[in-house]
Specification:
Leucine-rich Repeat Variant; two-stranded antiparallel ribbon; 47 helices; flat
Length: 1036
């Protein structure tokens, strides 16, 4: 026995020496593997395994991942994986590691999982390991996937990755897909993503993590997509999403990985380096922007090389047509381009032009040899561009016409070719004449339509823009401005076309298609015109255009004509010096009385005109003259009922638009597939006003809290949850609004209480509905309160912070009776919001309805999260006094009272003079700054009592009086209750002292029971089921 121990000890020393030398360098691993194999061969299997396992024990207690330790682990895994001749050692070593993987020590679990994963990754496919052992290893690693240590979880996932591809182990893949969305650690998510095999189920999970918050996970997702998913296996939508996200990622490493996927895998391997073939896999007609970004990235990376025989001229083939007795002349024959080819040449030509301009600018900004190099590069790019483009403008025109005549299948290619016109030279009079005739032909081209089963004409396209497409209208206007670049020439040509098209409309002989065509050309003119100055003295004057075309079009019987005419009215109003009366009246009429689609367009027009000219100018056009002082002091919006308005609309513009946010019928009438609604347009308009409030001084700042309150309520409303455009717009707005200015935080502080009172059921509104519905509404209100708290605590941007510090240094607060007035930004800080919340809480009486109890509890839970600055000593003292009354109001909530006591202790700790009293004048000064009307008692204690008691100044009442008051309060809470109050008469015997004492005792006992019931309620009454039930009973 002693001999065996001595032999084992000697063998352990030899093994330890080999392991130490293997940790020094990877170069020695091959030689040391031979040495360790020699030791294994020279010893019995049991002796060697015992010595080997005991030698590894110190490694299982070493937590640091040093380079030497990692090399040792890899050496051990390599040795174990190469033990083919003695499978018994491998199986015995696996069982040893499985036991270590279940140890209580986290370092032992980490090393065991690390070695298991390394061995499994190195084992050959034909390794002979029993199925029972694999089952043990897999089950152990499945348990470690749920380990509390992230590194252990990651190594367990790596160990299971090799089994995830096996169909017999589908439960491992299910485990990965379940753990991935729940995993919080980025390294573990990365390992799971790298371990997922290619399949339809895993492609969705990997695609979702291209938007992961961690850069390493996003990079791993693109790596897996590049190496495990061929281009042909992905759908067109998935391909475009991958490129759209990856090429626009904020991380350079992720963008580089996506570019590697695009260039090395998709372009080179799948498309043989042909960019046009790659564009065919992306459906550029549907995903044009993705195709453009792909071409721009490839051109910038130098992955696209033009061949000498490649140019647009190869699609224009000249053929000779010989006629008897005459010499032959050339007639161009056009080869039609596919959509991918047209996009390819547009991006290539645009890239060449951009490079030439950049190098030309660099040459002009430098001198000497460097300028000569830049000039040479610019000249080379210009020469290459000239070689690629058509040689003559007439050839270009014929090329575009051929694609136009080919039908709707080549509409995309036609638009791409139109955009090439901006790169041609029209300085020659002959070329300009040919191009001008082509432009007018495009403008006169009638609207395309189809005939349905009932014989009705259905317009193809959006029915608003020229050609039924916004991109097509932009392409035509860009070519027209390039051809007619002289001042006023563009307006003159388009007015000539409009005058020609408007003639049948004036004569009332045009159908609705001709009306829409004429108005679309007019809209193109008004959208691109810079001023009416260039339209004066032309074929049709602006006033004539308004009276004879736009206003009659807005009153047309066909809704599609009304829609496009309303849009033109909005564009016309932006060009006017002052909005005209007829235009404003018609837009207001369309906004109020028009259908949903027309109201949307009119809403856009009114907001644009109001922000451009100012709401006062629009109101003056309607004859509404208000004094500037009255307008600046406007605090509320006038109530407007849009459903009952007659034609005598004596309503201001802001009142009218604000009333539009309250019309729920517009929300219900809009299809959920549409991207726009009246609420979305109004919300976006008011968000712009608040975000850029400095640019709109004509809008009173006193109205900003009302705007913000309404936007917050809309953002958290269930009625607008399907309006994705509104949600997206407001999410971006709320992200930046609080950090732009300290005045914005002041606006948020003022909006807090109106939002909470409006959203909380039973405060400003009737608390009806089932308990579940009431609970959900309260949860939304709590979310809104926390959301506003986050906005208040969001830091200001750097420039605004510097400006705020300068203002504080330049203007010091005045001192009143030894007391410093609040700082200039007091109303913008958390102190002002805290006092507003406290004033709201103490405004409720001791006896509260269930809705009021939960409301007060929710406010107090927000109150304790606010912080006070050391410089605001007056606010600290005032808050200390108010906290006592706040605690009294929320005495039924034990947890809330505890938090309030902690807050009082924090305030006392930062109070420089805790024993100094706050005078009534000082308190009124602070409350006046916050525009609060609160009866403040200077005799209130600044210490929260151990057991707060409800404040009451009323004398003791009889039992009958208590019952009568409870019945009265229930009737006030329920507006649907019409049960008259039964008033009891006082019995003559109640004057006796014994009867008074008995009734007083009964009343006190009843109050004690009520207090006990309140104390037994949950810590939070925000979503209390009992409160909801009581609220429903009171409503009934």
């Amino acid at each position: 026995m002693v001999v065996d121990m001595e032999a084992e000890k000697a063998l352990m020393q030899k093994i330890a020496r080999v392991l130490d030398e293997s940790g020094a360098s990877n170069a020695a691993h091959i030689r040391k593997l031979k040495d360790l194999s020699t030791l294994r061969s020279a010893s019995s299997s049991s002796l060697f395994f015992s010595a080997f396992s005991k030698t590894l024990i110190p490694l299982f207690a070493f937590p640091r991942r040093t380079s030497s330790a990692e090399r040792t682990v890899r050496f051990i895994a390599t040795f174990a994986s190469k033990c083919d001749s003695t499978t018994a050692f491998l199986e015995e070593f696996f069982r040893f590691l499985v036991n270590a993987a279940t140890a209580a020590n986290k370092t032992a679990r980490f090393r065991a999982c690390q070695m298991i994963s390394e061995i499994i990754m190195r084992l050959p496919d034909d390794a002979e390991v029993s199925n029972e052992l694999w089952d043990e290893v897999i089950e152990c690693m499945r348990l470690r996937v749920g380990d509390k240590v992230p590194l252990v979880r990651a190594l367990a996932v790596r160990a299971l990755a090799r089994f995830a591809t096996d169909s017999e182990n589908s439960d491992i893949l299910d485990l990965f897909l379940e753990a991935l969305p729940l995993e919080h650690n980025a390294e573990v998510r990365k390992m799971i993503v790298l371990s997922l095999p290619p399949s339809n189920a895993t492609s969705v999970a990997i695609l979702d993590h291209t938007l992961d918050v961690s850069e390493v996970v996003r990079k791993a997702a693109y790596y897996v997509l590049a190496n495990k998913f061929p281009l042909q296996s992905l759908s067109i939508k998935v391909r475009t999403i991958i490129l759209q996200r990856g090429l626009a990622d904020r991380s350079a490493a992720v963008t580089k990985e996506c570019l590697k996927l695009l260039k090395d895998e998709w372009l080179v391997k799948c498309c043989n380096g042909d960019p046009i073939e790659l564009l065919k896999y992306l459906d550029v007609e549907t995903y044009e922007l993705v195709g453009e970004s792909v071409m721009e990235v490839l051109l910038k990376a130098g992955a696209v090389q033009l061949q000498d025989d490649q140019s647009i001229q190869q699609f224009i083939v000249a053929t000779s047509n010989e006629i008897e007795g005459e010499s032959g002349h050339c007639i161009p024959r056009i080869r039609l381009m596919e959509a991918e080819v047209a996009l390819y040449w547009k991006t290539v030509c645009r890239n060449l032009q951009m490079k030439a301009q950049e190098r030309g600018s660099d040459a002009a900004a430098t001198m000497g040899a460097e300028a000569a190099v830049y000039a040479a590069e610019a000249s080379d790019n210009n020469d290459l561009l000239e070689r690629v483009l058509p040689a003559m403008v007439s050839d270009y025109v014929e090329l575009v016409k051929a694609h136009l005549d080919a039908g709707s299948n080549y509409c995309f290619a036609s638009r791409q070719l139109l955009l090439l016109g901006a790169m041609l030279d029209f300085s020659d009079a002959t070329n300009r004449k040919v191009a001008s005739g082509f432009v007018q032909e495009l403008l006169r081209k009638p609207i395309e339509y189809e005939v349905d089963e009932d014989g009705n004409k259905v317009v193809m396209g959006d029915g608003v823009n020229l050609g039924g497409d916004r991109e097509w209208a932009d392409a035509v206007s860009g070519l027209a401005r390039k051809v007619h670049a002289a001042a006023g020439e563009f307006e003159e040509v388009l007015l000539g076309v409009v005058e020609e098209l408007a003639q049948p409309c004036r004569e009332r002989t045009a159908d609705f298609l001709h009306w829409m065509h004429c108005l679309s050309v007019t809209g193109l003119l008004l959208e691109n015109a810079k001023s009416f100055r260039w339209m004066q003295g032309k074929s049709i004057e602006p006033d004539e255009l308004l009276q004879s075309l736009l206003l009659p079009g807005a009153k047309h019987v066909h809704l599609a004509v009304q829609r496009v005419a309303t849009r033109c009215l909005g564009l016309f109003g932006l060009l006017e010096r002052k909005p005209s009366v007829e235009l404003v009246k018609q837009l207001r009429f369309c906004f109020i009385k028009g259908s949903s689609s027309i109201s949307i367009v009119a809403c856009k027009a009114l907001i644009d005109i109001g922000m451009w000219h100012g709401p006062q100018e629009v109101d003056r056009a309607m004859g509404l003259e208000l004094s500037s002082l009255l307008h600046e002091n406007k605090m509320t919006f006038s109530p407007v009922n849009l459903c009952d308005m007659n034609e005598d609309w004596n309503v201001e513009l802001l009142d009218l638009l604000y009333a539009g946010l309250n019309v729920n019928d517009w929300i219900k009438s809009v299809d959920m597939d549409e991207n726009e609604s009246v609420q979305a347009i109004l919300g976006e308009g008011f968000a712009k006003i608040l975000l850029l409030s400095e640019n709109y001084p004509c809008i009173p700042a006193s109205l900003h809290p009302l705007f913000l309150s309404k936007l917050i309520i809309l953002y958290f409303s269930n009625e607008t949850k399907e309006l994705q455009r509104l949600k997206q717009c407001l999410s971006v707005f709320f992200e930046h609004y609080p950090s732009l200015s300290a005045d914005h935080k002041k606006c948020i502080s003022k909006s807090f209480m109106p939002v909470m009172r409006s959203m909380w059921p039973g405060i400003n509104t009737r608390a009806g509905g089932s308990p579940f519905m009431v609970s959900n509404v309260r949860k939304l209100a709590v979310q809104a309160s926390r959301f506003m708290l986050q906005m208040m605590q969001a830091p200001l941007y750097a420039k605004e912070t510097e400006k705020q510090n300068e203002n504080q240094n330049n203007e010091l607060p005045e001192v009143l009776d030894g007391f410093s007035e609040p700082s200039l930004d007091f109303e913008c800080g958390e102190e002002g919001l805290a006092i507003r919340i406290a004033a709201e809480v103490v405004s409720f009486h001791a006896k509260k309805t269930p809705a009021q109890k939960s409301y007060v509890s929710a406010l107090c839970r927000v109150l304790v999260l606010l912080h006070f600055r050391l410089s605001e000593q007056g606010a600290i003292k005032l808050m200390r006094r108010l906290l006592n009354r706040v605690a009294e109001s929320a005495f039924a909530e034990r947890e809330v009272v505890k938090e309030l006591k902690r807050m009082a202790e924090r305030l006392k700790a930062i109070d420089r003079e805790p024993d100094q009293e706050l005078s009534q004048e000082q308190a009124n000064c602070i409350l006046g700054r916050l525009e609060l009307d609160l009866n403040f008692d200077v005799d209130d204690s600044m210490e929260i009592q151990p057991t707060p008691v409800s404040r009451s100044s009323r004398p003791a009442r009889t039992r009958q009086g208590v019952r009568n008051q409870e019945s009265s309060s229930e009737e006030e809470l329920s507006p649907t209750s019409f049960v008259p109050q039964v008033t009891g008469t006082i019995n003559t015997r109640s004057q006796r002292a014994s009867k008074i004492a008995a009734l007083t005792k009964m009343t006190a006992n009843r109050a004690v029971r009520i207090s006990k019931e309140d104390d037994e309620e949950q810590g939070s009454a925000v979503t209390s089921q009992e409160d909801s039930d009581e609220s429903d009973q009171s409503d009934e």
